[in-house]
Amino acid sequence: MAASILIIEDNLNNLALMDYLLQAFGYIPLQAQDGIAGLAMIRSEMPDLILCDIQLPLLDGFGIAKALKCDEKLSVIPLIAVTALAMVGDKEKILKAGFDGYITKPITPETFIGEVEKFLSTENLSRMNR
Ligand code: MN
To answer: Which of 32, 77, 83, 128 shows the smallest number of beta carbons within 10 Å?
Structure first.
């Protein structure tokens, strides 16, 4: 069974690009376009990994990280920030907030899947990449 990866992103171009790349490499992408919908989808779908923008409508990435951290079932899901925040200290702030990793925007199609797969367990890697 291919891993399901939830993308929480309000920029439709980024959302479409990540969705396309994940599908092309054998993963099952799920989508949410704001933080509240994202959190609801995490609870209902229990994805194998979450790719999360920081600046989101209704509830931002930090709010999502906070909500996951206090839920022992959800806190085990790898939570990766995908963000253009690039100021000194932003990465530390993101990791301190409970994110497991950080992918910088703009997304580089050539390296994106490799970066995502660093955070997937071996059994969740797609058959193409095991
Ligand atoms: Mn955004």
So the answer is: 128
